Amino acid sequence: MSTQAITMDELLASSDINGLSTGEVIEGVVSDVKKNEVWIDLGAQGIGVVLRREIGYGQNLEEGQKITVSVVDPEMDEGYALLSMKRAVKDRGWDELQRLHEANEIIDVAPYDANRGGLLVELEGIRGFLPVSQLAAGHYPRVSGADKDEILQKLHALTNKPLRVRVLDVSRKDNKLIFSEKEAVKDDLQARFSELKVGDEVEGMITGVIDFGAFVNVDGIEGLIHISEISWERVDNPRNYVKVGETVKAKIIAIDKDRLSLSLKQMSEDPWLEQVKTFKAGDVIEGKVTRITPFGAFVQLSPSVEALVHVSEMSDDEAVDPEKLFRLNEKKQFKVLDIDSESRKIALSLKEAKATKAKVKK
To answer: In the structure, what pLDDT confidence band is assigned to residue 9 with cuts at 50, 70 and 90?
Structure first.
């Protein structure tokens, strides 16, 4: 049997020992802990060093401890490898985040800070962002006039609190990590939406009051009560009727893709129908001017009944200017011309009321 000499290069080439490569994540054992560096035994792959700044905050390493590191430089001039624990965490973190994104998994996070654009979140050693636009309805900061300071205050209230999210976008190359709470609750919301229908009565909490209405959180679904649906009375300021944090019962009047249109006033009988019975065509009654427009003035006859005196019924003068003829909250006598209960409209006349009054005096 003949033998053949084998060179060292051939021996290494035929072995299972692989050389290190930049970015590779490997395991090693701490062999020596010094003030500014930690030496790592990589077994057959040699030795490496982790500089103190690459260890990570709060890490206390001991000899014999098994750790995971990332290769920064596989072979320094001195023959050892330059390693990083921080990068290893991030490298594995990016892989895990990519997996979470592809699997569309729902995870729990707790934002560590906030800015006016959203919440700052760290997961798997990687810092990411949860934009305001990706918050679920119950956490979206509804404020009047888009007050930036008030928005920031509401966002800060969400820090250090658990939120269920999905990874919306992840890119190691661009160092981008975006979360979405809306995506995490989307499936549940669709299931709840399928159980609701127009006419249902629901209960929810007022989450924001703005000039044109109020937002309501109905078991995680966002609802809007438009100012016209708050009360049977004419509402000038929704804040006089509902407050943030108040629980209300409302009726669903429309279902959009991701929002309910709600009505508070339809939870009770329309008082207009009862109060209008006290008036009839031909009556001369007193009313208070509530709005003045170029085409006429609106007059309140009772708490829930409002009527219109058209510009043509103000005076025989065709050039009459309603702004000069009326003052807001002024009370005057008007004659009822017509009552249309089906359309909830009442037509008044100022000039005929004056004519009737003049006839009475004669």
So the answer is: low
